[in-house]
Amino acid sequence: MSEEFAGTVFTRLFRPQHVLCLARPRPGAPRPDGGVPAVLVIPRGGRLRAPRLMTLDPRPEGAAPPTPKHPGAGASAFANVVTGTHVVARHDATVHRTSADVLVTRPPKPPAGLAPPVVRLRRALARHPECEVAIEPAGTECLAALRNGPTLRTAVARGASPPWPEMCGSFLHAWTSAGLTADDLADAVVIAGRLPPAENGRADLLEVAGRIEFTPPTTATTHQAAS
Predict the structure, then answer these.
(1) Is residue 1, in this structure, part of any structural domain at all?
(2) pLDDT of residue 137
(3) Which has the closest alpha carbon to 185: 197, 193, 174?
(4) Based on the number of CB atoms within 10 Å of its own CB, is 208 exposed (0-12), middle (13-18) or buried (19 or more)?
(5) Residue 33 DSSP class
(6) Burial letters 41-52, b for 16+ CB under 10 A, else e
(7) 54: closest CA among 158, 200, 191, 208?
(8) For residue 72, is it within any domain?
(9) With contact defined as beta carbons under 8 Å apart, do 56 and 4 qualify?
(10) What residue numbers bound the domain in which 70 lies?
(11) What is the pLDDT of residue 222?
C-alpha cells in the first residue's frame, strides 16, 4: 500500500453484483500502472447482508477529480453507489492540517504521566473542530477515534507499508459518512488491497494486501473516550 494518502481523497462505495477474485501479488512480479486502493467488507452476520466494496482515490493538491467510472467491469456490475470526498493530513503537514477531515497523529515521546492514547485522540478532535476521524499508529495497530462514534483499535496486515494509518482513517470516514457503523465492521471480514486496471473483460480482481481487524468498543474504552 504505497499510495500517497495526503490531500483530497475521492471515495466510492459499491455493493458488488458479482464475485470478486481475490489474489495476493507474487513477490517481485510487475504491477500494471493505474488501479486504485480498495477495501472489501464481507459481512458475517449483523445487519449487513451483502458485501461492500470501497475505492479510495487520493489526489494531489489541485488535481482533477477521478473519472466517475469504476476501473473494473463497469458501472452495471455495481449497485447502491455512494460517492464522497474528504481531506486527509498528517500531524506534521504544512497544509490541510487545520481543515482535515481525517488527521493522523503521532504518539508523543513517553514522559511520565503521559495521557492515554484514547484521551490524546479525543483532545486532537477537540483541537480540530473540522476533523471527524483522528487516528494514531502504534506498530502494527492503529487507534482511531470517531467524533460521532466510538474509539476503535484496528490491527492491520503484517508487512503492510505506509500509509496504512491514512487508509484506515480515510476508510472509516467514508464508511460512517455513508450511514454505516463501526458495529457493522466488527461483524465482518475486512480486506484491503488494490483494484488493478481491467483487462479485456476479465472479472474484477482485488490484489490483497491484508486484512484489517476492528476491535469492538469495550465499556472501558467507551467510558475513557467520553471522559
Answers:
(1) no
(2) 87
(3) 174
(4) middle
(5) S
(6) bebeeeebeebb
(7) 191
(8) yes
(9) no
(10) 7-226
(11) 41
Task: Name the stretches of the chain with pLDDT < 50.
Answer: 1-3, 69-76, 200-201, 217-227
Of 176, 188, 181, the residue nearest 45 (C-alpha): 188
Q: Is residue 53 part of a domain?
A: yes
The burial of 151, by beta-carbon neighbours within 10 Å (0-12 exposed, 13-18 middle, 19 or more buried), is given as: buried
Task: Report which of 146, 164, 147, 163 is spatially closest to residue 155, judged by C-alpha positions.
Answer: 164
Q: What are the E-state strand segments in 17-121? A: 21-23, 36-43, 52-59, 78-90, 102-104
In the 8-state DSSP scheme, what is residue 216?
P
Burial class (CB in 10 A: 0-12, 13-18, 19+), 127: exposed
How far apart (Å, rounded) are the C-alpha atoms in residues 156 and 181?
Answer: 19
Residues constituting the chain: 227
Q: Alpha helices of 61-186 — where are they, by DSSP H? A: 117-127, 164-177, 182-186
Which residues have CB under 8 Å from 142's CB, separation 6+?
135, 136, 153, 154, 156, 164, 165, 168, 169
Whether the CB-CB separation of 79 and 18 falls below 8 Å is answered with: no
Indicate whether 104 belongs to any domain: yes
How many domains is the chain built from? 1
Q: What is the pLDDT of residue 72?
A: 46
Among candidate residues 65, 89, 44, 40, the one with its CA nearest the CA of residue 190: 40
